[in-house]
Amino acid sequence: MNDSNNDELLSALGKRLVSGSLTDDELLRTTGESPAFAILPEANVIKIGGQSIIDRGRKAVFPVLDEVVEALPHHQMIIGTGAGTRARHAYSMGIELGVPTGVLSVLGTFVSMQNARMPHYLLAKHGIPFIEPVQFPQLPLYLAERRAAIFFGMPPYTFWHRNPSVGRIPPHRTDTGSYLISEVFGTRSMIYVKDEDGLYTADPKKDKGAKFIPKISAQELLAQDFNDVVVERPVLEFMIDAQHRRSIQIVNGLKPGNLRRALDGEHVGTIIHAD
Questions:
Q1: How far apart are the C-alpha atoms of 30 and 24, rounded to whole Å?
Q2: Sheet-wide strand order for 247-252
Q3: Listed residue (255, 251, 257) closest to 270, CA to CA
Q4: How do residues 59-88 score in pLDDT, each as one tens digit?
Q5: Are 202 and 226 a contacting pair, CB within 8 Å?
Q6: What pTM, to 2 d.p., does this model score?
Q7: What letter does residue 77 receive in the DSSP assignment?
Q8: What residue segments make up the domains of the chain, in order of their start?
Q9: Was domain 45-273 assigned CATH 3.40.718.10?
Q10: Burial 117-147 (b: 16+ CB within 10 A, else e)
């Protein structure tokens, strides 16, 4: 039997990985020396908020979908959906029943999936498909043929979801899942469509003194430790170690034209970036 460590087909790094330990910090550092390949550099990930947009119904959803259709000739779009109020209801019931975080993640996943199905049917006449995680290998074809695809934003951790440091609500939800798609595929942008103009120092719906922040680094925002943040905190943490998606943009989807302006590269809303 040939010794794989002496295989001449292995690169120097390959030989080190075969014979070394994957907990060796020095060895792990060498794995980051070569650049990561951007798989879909022309695509834009758009996350449509569940509670902020979809839960508002026709008056909020239709204008956003109209902007998606308008942008089809100009931009490739991977559209994720949030879970919204129904997920919060499911979480409350699950917590009262005593189910663990991994099961709560399953409940949130199915609500996010329902919210993805609705815009999918509304956009079906434009040939925009709904895809599940198992179909992501076909995503390049969908984007080349139809320019867009819809997925549910909840990452498929389900039972494997880590416990949060506080409480039992899954810490990695639809903001995080959408962000990870943008990072892994090396997309052109990550745009969150919310019901606020962007990031504030507090929830502007509850605090009239909240100040708008047009641009800030993820590191600075985490250090500020605001009680209310417009995106899930894990997104900020992941961004610091990201290789591709080192900035995100938050826009107000209730204001017509904001999504299209963000797709066109305008600084509308808030941009959060990694130093």
A1: 10
A2: 148-152, 76-81, 43-48, 189-194, 247-252, 270-273, 215-217
A3: 251
A4: 999 999 999 999 999 999 999 999 999 999
A5: yes
A6: 0.93
A7: E
A8: 45-273
A9: no
A10: eebbebbeeeebbbbeeeebeebeebbeebb
